[in-house]
Amino acid sequence: MSFHLPADLLDRPTPYYLYDLNLLERTLHMLQQAAQAHNVQVHYALKANANLPVLERVQQAGFGADCVSGNEVQRALDAGFAPDHIVFAGVGKSDAEINLALTADIWCFNAESGQELEVLNELAGAQGRRARVALRVNPNVDAHTHHYITTGLDANKFGINLSDLPATVELLESLPHLELVGLHAHIGSQITNLSVFEQLSHKINELQTWLEDKGYQLPHLNVGGGLGINYDDPDTDPIPDFEAYFAAFGQHLHRRAGQQVHVELGRSVVAQCGTLVSRVLYVKQSQQTNFAILDAGMTELIRPALYGSHHHIQNVTSTAKTDKTYDVVGPICESSDTFGKGILLPETKRGDLIALRSAGAYGEVMSSEYNLREKTTPVYVG
Predict the structure, then answer these.
(1) Residue at which a domain ends, from 270, 288, 309
(2) Do 216 and 357 share a structural domain?
(3) Which of 18, 51, 100, 148 is the least crowded, having the fewest Cβ atoms under 10 Å away?
């Protein structure tokens, strides 16, 4: 398959996010088949994309919701997710956010510190409830990805360090309004080397055995998400290999009888179905390079500026027979407002439409109004 812009969108004001709902539904179908084959419960990570048309299709496919803020919990409820299919993670949950989730009676809180457990116990007691919690442990497993999206090392702010786990488990025994139901770990994002998940499985196996020696039998294990996608060639790999991802845990995670395994996938579900469409404002030549200056910038897609991410860039309207290299940049008053340097494109002119691919995750949801830019309006096809 390859990307083509529908004819009725060629004259639409830019920039805008274009979502291919047919591809999303094919992706959800493949994910559903793989998850059922391995008896895994999927919680979709709303932080990747929280648009209602996307969430409604995820919910209809039978998946749960992984939330990292009170507003995400509310958005999941608004999109039709049942409270008992919602988990709430995050290193800094406010009292108001916790109370919202308690009142909704969500399925589980992924707790990241002893102090959070104490606060959660107090707030649950005030509501006359007993909150279900999973301990998010920091397994000190290197995901071998960008340091801004690595979350499982001792140096990261996330999770309970292994050295603090004994004291945390002891603390739990004094908190009557909490029920420990599982372990949770998430080591990072855009992981393409599946051996990392093998390492994570071995670490969880060790922790589970240690907890069993302490008298805890855990009905649930949450191994996080992190499965990467092909940003270089999205048309070759529009749907990730979910089967291989689940098999990595199936082969190495020591699952107890009746134990439920959960994953939290976001990027791999929605990234390839989204494209940022932009128009060339100017082509500027210098002694060193050609600049293709777009009407979209880091305010619409901050990932390249934030951590040097790569998105496949296409000129979808040029009919030129010759190619040139361009630095593809945005209009924002920041030197980091660059989508890619030395990009080979058909000879590009003012008014050409540019597609920045694989932008369905951490694209629109991270957009801003810096420079008083207006928010884009998404377009859905399929």
Answers:
(1) 270
(2) no
(3) 148
Give percent above pLDDT 90 in the chain: 91
Contact partners, residue 74, CB within 8 Å, separation at least 6 = 100
Task: Tell me the whole-structure pTM to 2 decimals.
Answer: 0.93
Number of domains in the chain: 2
Known binding positions for substrate: 267, 303, 307, 334, 362
Binding-site positions for pyridoxal 5'-phosphate:
226, 264-267, 362
Place of tokens 């420990």: 180
Which tens digits make up the pLDDT trace of 321-345?
Answer: 999 999 999 999 999 999 999 999 9
333 is catalytic: yes
Tell whether 175 is covered by a domain: yes
**Choice among 67, 108, 273, 333 that is catalytic:** 333
Residue stretches of the annotated binding site: 226, 264-267, 303, 307, 334, 362
- Is residue 144 scored above 70 in pLDDT? no
Q: How far apart are CA 336 and CA 306, in angstroms?
A: 8
Range of the domain at 288: 7-15+272-381
Which positions ≥6 away from 28 have C-beta within 8 Å? 57, 58, 61, 63, 269
Q: Which residues are within 8 A (CB) of 335 and not within 5 positions of it... i.e. 6 or more apart?
A: none
* Cα first-last separation, the chain: 15
Examine residue 367 and state whether it is found in any structural domain, yes or no.
yes
Query: For the residues 131-137, what does the mean pLDDT come to?
Result: 97
Q: Note the pLDDT of residue 155.
A: 53
For range 220-228, the mean pLDDT? 96
Judged against a pLDDT cut of 60, whether residue 143 lies above it is answered with: no
